[in-house]
Write a structure and sequence with these properties.
The protein is of the alpha+beta class and about 90 residues long. It has a domain at about 25-80. The chain is about 45% helix and about 15% strand. The chain is built from 5 helices and 3 strands; from the N terminus they run H-H-E-H-H-E-E-H. It has helices spanning about 10-15, 20-25, 35-40, 45-55, 70-80, and strands at about 30, 60-65, 65-70. A 3-stranded antiparallel β-sheet has the order 1-3-2. It is globular and about 30 Å long. The N and C termini lie far apart (about 30 Å).
Length: about 90
Amino acid sequence: MAESKSRNPFTPADAAACFDDPHWAARYPPILNVDQAAALLQIPKATVYAWSSQGRLDRCKARAGKHLRLHRDRLVQHLFEGKFHG
């Protein structure tokens, strides 16, 4: 029988550990605005909004009035799970 391997060994604890350094924690706080999320992922802001509209960020986002906010650790985890690809 073949060994069962985890498809994604990158855990939520790994995502949080990326920001243990105070410099990165200050630059990317736990709740990100769209500018911060785009900078973290190195993509245009328009892409963040497009992914949000397409439902690709549903696990990571919340609205504060008309403003989009993203949970940093969930966003990084989402990235490593490959959820942004069509």
